[in-house]
Amino acid sequence: MTDNRDQSIRNIGLLSVTQALGGSTSSIIMSVGALAAVNIAPDPAAATLPTSAMIIGLALATSIATMIIYRIGRTRGLVLGAALGIPAALLAGGAVMLGNFYLFTAALFLVGVTGAFMQQVRFAAADSVTPDLKGQAISWVMFGGVAAGFLGPQLSALTRTWIPGSEYAASFLVIAVISLISVFVLSQTRLAPTKVPGAPQGRGRPLPVLLRQWEIVTPMIGASLTYALMTLIMVAAPLAMVHVCGHSPSEAAGAIQWHVVSMFAPSFITGAIIKRLGAHLVTALGLLLIIAAAAIALTGITVGYFTATLILLGIGWNFGFIGSTTMLATSYRPEEAGRAQAVNEQVVFGASALASLGSGFLLQVLGWEAIVTLAIPVATLAILLVGFGAFRHRQMA
To answer: Rounded to an integer, what distance in angstroms lies between the CA atom of residue 269 and that of residue 274?
Structure first.
């Protein structure tokens, strides 16, 4: 029993480091992806397309990544996913040096494919502990993203001009090094097997039946709308700060840094809060914080207002996303895990991809205020749906 507990703690620690490394990759791209693209894009309105391509790659690859992980095992599958990030990052850096916008877009699509594997880290933690510890395991792994909040933007700012004449190219080459370190860290994990002992293969409720269960649909709605709203605002924020409001790239990177930190820092206590208040209420609180972030964004456009908006947005995402993930992780049977997780990731990151694609267009056509205003009614609707899910959950209890 002690050996199992020690192994669980070791796995959570290693997965937390993995989350920090993977989050650094994402925060580098979110900090400078659009800024690098706007210099080589055929049209400024297309500047968010490469970042959107990353999210699209993540969304399209989620089912395949989950299937591979459940076929070859969690450790081997995650190592494979991390290894794919090395050539993808090298291609992205090369594309910036060549000034090839379309190659850059394709490279970030491949980075997104790597991200599809890394998104399974939180489920790997949840499925490797007892049910009463799932929320805390997810929280501790997600807490690793705090390091990413500092590391990613700082690396992107530090390496921005390392390659003369190719601004930001080195920032993407750094991702290859991060991916290599991730491969080593993941190779040290010993995660729970994906095949449930004593459970016949193929058993469990079929997907159409799972999707008729409100306890499964509710977390999918909560996670997808939380992630989409966060993406919508976060992708547009650096462009709005630099190219609309006249702030410097370093100020934009600083705001994104605090956003990423706030996305993961609450994870230290989110699991305990979920245990006390319940996952439904914590998810609703997260969405309420996103509404508060939008309200602050409508108040002013100084660096302070942008930073405050992104900090609240990050905390809201943390509560909404971890709350939704905890709901989902306790709603299916062990033999249904791969099926439920795959469709959840498809829905969540499909919604995020659409939000990212729309972000640049809305910024160019309607402006920053329109983007943050849109978040208010969408988050309100999501709160109502999660509330209905909580009501159904109590009725079934």
So the answer is: 9
Please check the confidence at residue 1 and state whether its pLDDT lies above 50: no
Residue in this structure with the two tokens 């302070």, named with its chain if needed: 304
Distance CA 282, CA 301 (A): 29
- Cβ–Cβ < 8 Å for 264, 148: yes
- The residues, ordered by sequence, that sit 6+ positions from 83 with a Cβ below 8 Å of its Cβ are 179, 183
Q: What are 261-271's pLDDT values in tens digits? A: 898 889 878 88
CA 115 to chain centre: 8
56 Cβ contact partners less than 8 Å away, ≥ 6 residues apart = 109, 112, 353, 356, 357
pLDDT digits (tens, 9 = 90+) for 146-182: 888 788 878 888 898 899 989 899 999 999 999 999 9
* CA atoms of 387 and 218, how far apart (whole Å): 9
Residue type, 157: A
- Total-model pTM: 0.77
Cβ atoms within 10 Å, residue 104: 28
Q: Cβ(20)–Cβ(82) under 8 Å? A: no
Closest to 323 (Cα-Cα) out of 222, 228, 394: 222
Q: The domain 2-194+204-396: what is its CATH number?
A: 1.20.1250.20
Written as six digits, the tokens of 2 are 């002690």
In angstroms, the CA 296 to CA 186 distance is: 40
Question: How far apart are alpha carbons 368 and 106 in whole angstroms?
Answer: 27
Beta carbons of 119 and 25 less than 8 angstroms apart: no
Instruction: Give all strands (DSSP E) within the chain, no chain letters.
Output: none
Tokens of 361: 């267009």
Q: By three-state DSSP, how is residue 319 classified?
A: helix
235 three-state secondary structure: helix
CB–CB of 284/387 below 8 Å? yes
The phi and psi torsions of 161 (rounded to 5 degrees) equal: -115, 20
